[in-house]
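Let us work through a complete example step by step.
Step 1: write down the sequence.
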Amino acid sequence: MTNAQLRPPTMADVARLAGVSHQTVSRVLGNHPNVRDETRARVLRVIEETGYRRNSSARALVTRRTRTLGVVASDTTLYGPASTLFALEEAARAEGYLVSTVTLRKLTVETLSEALDHLSEGGVEGVVAIAPQRSAVVALAELRCPFPVVVVGSGPGVEIPSVSVDQHLGAALATGHLLAAGHRNVWHLAGPEEWQEAADRAAGWRATLEAAGAEPPVLLRGDWSPLSGYRAGQELAGWVGRGLTAVFVANDQMALGVLRALREAGVRTPQDVAVVGFDDIPESEYFAPPLTTVRQDFSTVGKRGIAMLLELIEGRPPATARRIAIEPQLVVRASTFPHAVQPEGVPL
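Step 2: predict the structure and record it as tokens.
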């Protein structure tokens, strides 16, 4: 085997085999319009046959563009942050960008500063920070970054360009649905206090009850896990028969624990207590009973977040506001109405 066969193919190899100039290959790769169709087809055929891949480092030296974006995240074992991360990576790839991700245990000024330094050394052109905790947003605001930064999952009132789902509206949809079904009041199991999303959902719940003339019951709090939902559900079961007929739970995984605790206590859902969750995780329609919940459009969050970041990188006028709130959707299932539509083949 020769040395030429051992090394990866170069642009010069493609040009020679296709019988064109180096510049023509570059134009084809850049999708330049001034290339004849037959020439383009010939070059692309040689690229496929040789397995040629562009040298991103060499291209960056010429264009001063790495076409690489950074993402900083934490708590990616949870459904929301994990889904947001996947959506961002998918949206970046669709725009022709690579993604370099740094996952942190906790978002502080120190850890964020280290992460941003690391991404800067890697040549990223901009960063998206998945920052659902209040402390993370405060930390980001204190840092000076050498590139544009967009925050996702941060909620309202953020000075940094941001994209998020309207958590307040989602909570209002959940609470309003239960009130419209005839429940006189709605209890709430909230997420961790330091999470902005948990605070916004609790605020939406409270505001909807107060607007309806109902006094908000004592707020319970969990840590997003089914276990914390189970323990809260045991406490909630003690209030059945004393005014408790409906519960809005701040995420589906805690709702799973609530449903089990109620079932073990002999409380029927939804006949005795209706339950609404939040997130619409893939398993929620297979809970017992299937869970009414609020669906977040993570795909749109990813697309809008990447689009906003690219506008900042390229200095383009914003197509939308620098703070975007995406509307969630209420998905009604049997945990609030016994005869809600079920997945085909799944009994109530």
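Step 3: interpret the result. The CA atoms of residues 63 and 337 lie 59 Å apart.
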